[in-house]
Amino acid sequence: MAxxxxxxxxxxxGGLCANSNIxxxxxxxxxxxxIGPNGAGKTTLFNMLTGVYEPSEGTIDFVRDxxxxxxxxxxxxxxxxxxxxxxxxxIRLFQNLSVIDNVKIAMNKDVKCGxxxxxxxxxxxxxxxxxxxxxxxxxxxxxHLADKKDELACxxxxxxxxxxxxxxxxxxRPKLLFLDEPAxxxxxxxxxxxxxxxxxxxxxxHISVLLIEHDMSLVMNLCERIYVLDYGxxxxxxxxxxxxxxxxxxxxxxGEEV
Amino acid sequence: xxxxxxxxTMTWTLFAAVVxxxxxxxxxxxxxxxxxxxxxxxxCINIILALSLNLIIGYSGQFSLGHAGFMAIxxxxxxxxxxxxxxxxxxxxxxxxxxxxxxxxxxxxxxxxLRLRGDYLAIATLGFSEVIRIAILNMDVTGGAAGxxxxxxxxxxxxxxxxxxxxxxxxxxFARSSHGRACASVxxxxxxxxxxxVNTTKYKTLAFVIGxxxxxxxxxxxxxxxxxxxxxxxxxxxxIDILVIVVFGGMGSLTGSIVAxxxxxxxxxxxxxxxxxxxxxxxxxxxxxxxxxPSGLFxxxxxxxxxxxxxxxxxxxx
Lengths: 258, 318
Known about the structure:
The complex is a heterodimer. By secondary structure, chain A is α/β, with parallel strands linked by helices.
């Protein structure tokens, strides 16, 4: 049974069909790429998978602790609690909060200390805060952000903001991580570092990754399987080698042969 | 123990005690006569109201214009309880009843309105506070337009000072917990917040309910000081007055709200002798201040007593 299975997923915005009839499967521990020209509907698909949009048709099923859960119509915070986390294409950090608070907020769903216990500062509160602090620092350490923990998120350079987005998503303890163009705006060296980082995260946290990316060197290097979208439809899927020689994919990117 | 007794808490406790001793001393020495005491108590009540509104606007980013409504609930609950039980116990009981009722009403209001954002939320909360005011105006038990009078004067400076401290502790402890951080994340970016597993509706409602309950405490203390309350006191103007304090002090800065309440209290006092010109001068003063400090006195920063002392020590060491 696949970790995430999507069947015949369709999303209409009024008369515009952003995604039509998309089916996809992601297995445990897999690194899957999702590519396609601009406007192909990749981010729309992400938004449906994470609960931001409700699908017009089709089903999304996610396996959690051996049980299949239907994600259709679930709110984003419920989806996240089930074990799907994401980053955003146009960075959406909590700009005016510190780096470590950004990570701590993502851990909020697992905090056991209630509101009254927090206000009255029961001993449990300090125990929980210490645990959160420790775990947040460990995560920042892995993403090389530990020395910036008290800086405001908006003061970080671009590449570090992207890494903080990943740290924040990991803090929700996901089983499946969605990365929306993590290498956008990075130079080749930063992209190479990011490739290493994603591979390391996948192994260390035992998670599956679904990756939207335009940078082909990153996608071809990293992904085990690739899905290609064009005009809202899935036009091809397979290993990087298969995709590179696929006629329809080349047509989608470069146009038809004359 | 180290969590409860450390340098930071000790400094603040000491600071609070010194401020209290100073003002209480001035009252006992009759330097602050009854005329100035009215200003003092007004400032104190405004501090409680501004702090509670700051929790809603500054921390969780929900623009509410309905604060006077919750203040009215607290005031009437206290006045009615004090009519039966005219002593400190009566006031405390009245405050408790006010907290419960305003909390429940805030919850009922929050469910439909907190789906709205920005200006729409402001208008909706404004509407609800008017509904509360008009309901009070038309009920028999509240005395209609004439309001309630002969309320025993229970609120004294020590009583109100203790309630300011309680309000501060509740808000600071809430803000500096995982729940407070969740509220701040809703303010920063609601979509990202929800995608990180924060139940945004829950946290918006929570901040709104706590803020409303604390506003009713301010209202109760008001009723137990000024003898008379009527629905006109808790109109739109009152909500705006509190909003001005919060914006002036800096949204998200608690010490800013306190300092702003004190400064605006003094401005009002200084302008007493100008009669009709008073409101115009008050408005001009606020406009001037907002031009020079557009994000409020303190922005979203806090005044830190511990650090102030440290700076002094360092200077002296040099």
